[in-house]
Amino acid sequence: MENKSHAMAAGVFVLVVAALLSVLAYWLTRDQGTYVDYELSSTQAVTGLQPQAAVRYKGVTVGRVASIGFNDEQHGMVIIQIKVEESTPISAKTYATLGYQGVTGLAYIELDDDAVARPVLGETASGIKRLEMRPSRLSRLVEMGPEFLGEIQETVVSLNTLLNKENQQVLMQAISSMGSAAQNASDVMEGLKPVVATISKDIESDMQVIRQAAGNLAKMGQDVSGIVQNMRAPGGVIPQLQQSARSLSLVGEELGNATLPSLQRMMEEVNSAVQEVKVLIHQVSSNPQRFLYGPDSSQPGPGERGFSAPVAH
């Protein structure tokens, strides 16, 4: 009896503990927020995506995947229903893609906004809003795989054609020609070394001559500067020239103020005397008797030049 009572007590204890753990798990995992349902549809594979996977908006977890299934009306269409927190800023620009967590292979739903608003997809028959589902980067890479492999194959074929035996011979001949050209260039450079050395010596000699000429010019400039300083010193040529110029200026002022007016008056008197002499000479030449008898004081008679009849009283 004791064994049965112990077994019953243990069983009851296990049941109570299991019930408590279930209640605790429900309490810890319960959702206290308000969620909005959205539906996504895609023809691409959703490998790695499972129910209860995270839904992230710009990297922030805002919900979870509620269910994954197929569309009965469209063959091959995958239907994904997600629950997103009501406070998430979803707009007409928002779209969904499939993201992957590192190397684990687990997928999640990534929500992001486009630059421009997209046409509204409407709602389902049950009133669930639809969001656009775009192919993931991995899906686009897989789609590009065959084309990329085809281009690689074409590149390999082109390389094989380029590197056939004939082209290899041509390539080796070109390499040999390049080697010969490099050797010829090296020989030319060796031959130019003496010429370059001679030119360098000539340039060095010319530079020495230029330096010497520059030194002579500098010395000449110093000599000229000393001569100019001596000429400007007191008692030098320039002060003497300035003193002479001042003396000449004073002489010119004296000539202008005193000598020239006196000379002008004297010239006027000489001119007047010359005029009188001219008149005298004219009179003597026209009537030489005046020189002996003096000036004629008689009046001209009738018929003579200068006669004038007396006025009757």
Helix content: 55-70%
Number of strands: 7
Q: Give the terminus-to-terminus CA distance.
A: 213 Å
- The chain-level mean pLDDT equals 77
CA radius of gyration is 66 Å
Tertiary shape:
elongated
Provide a count of the helices. Answer: 5
Widest sheet: strand ordering = 1-4-3-2-6-5-7
Structural class: alpha/beta
| Major sheet characteristics | 7 strands, mixed, barrel
Low-confidence stretches: none
Helices and strands, in N-to-C order?
HEEEEEEEHHHH
Strand share of the residues?
15-25%
Entry keywords:
single chain; 313 residues; alpha/beta; 7-stranded mixed β-barrel
Task: Give your account of this protein's structure.
This protein is α/β, with parallel strands linked by helices. The chain is built from 5 helices and 7 strands; from the N terminus they run αβββββββαααα. Strands 1-4-3-2-6-5-7 form a 7-stranded mixed beta barrel. The chain starts with a helix and ends in a 20-residue tail after the last helix. The mean pLDDT is 77.
